[in-house]
Amino acid sequence: MLTLTSPVETPLHRLPAAAKLAALAVFTVVLFRLSSPAGLALALAVVVALHLPWGARFAAHAGRMMRPLWPFVAVVALWHLWVSDPRGGAVVVLRMAAAVAAANLVTMTTRLSDMLAVFEWLATPLARLIPPRRLALAFALMIRFIPQLSDRLRQIADAFRARSPRRPGWRVLVPATLAALDDADHAAEALRARGGTE
């Protein structure tokens, strides 16, 4: 779960983590300023174009990281079709897809240690309340855990469907919670084995 960085080395890996995170923040603000499907489609096309020069393996890895987003896209699209607002649905879906794809691109091309250093620097003003390294580690682990938890929830739902004709629904919440706690325990053990957060 700490290895979401792409195995394919690209020039983007050599860019400073702070610059990439700042660019992501600016890009996200721009996305929320755009309100037309055409503008948001262009923004998504730019993000997709940034994935393509690095080969099929890199693009396939990016595609796999986008899989947890598709159920949300389907729900949003169906809702806006239900309320007869296809334009609004297109805006939300395109904005969401562009933001997640851009965030994934940064995650794929940035080592956890580099991201941790940036978060630690940003948390320096809070040093009197909480050690910056601990806060930075919490942010970095949150970023890394979200796709892992989504994949684990999908695996549990698939296992339930294979054993029962009923829909998984709320029935997967308990095993998913236990799996999340187990993953967190393994991550904690790994951190302790490497010297903790100090």
Polypeptide structure, described:
The protein is mainly alpha-helical and 198 residues long. The chain has 2 domains: 1-110, no CATH class; 112-198, no CATH class. Helices cover 72% and strands 0% of the residues. It is built from 8 helices and no strands. The longest helix is centred in the C-terminal third of the chain and has 32 residues, at 132-163. It is globular and about 50 Å long.
Radius of gyration: 19 Å
Share in helix: over 70%
Oligomer: single chain
Overall spatial form: globular
Largest pleated sheet: none
Discrete helix count: 8
The average pLDDT is: 81
Low-confidence stretches: none
Domains (count): 2
Question: What structural class do helix, strand and pairing data support?
Answer: mainly alpha
Strand content: under 5%
Tally the beta strands. Answer: 0
Distance between the termini: 21 Å
> What is the string of helix and strand elements?
HHHHHHHH
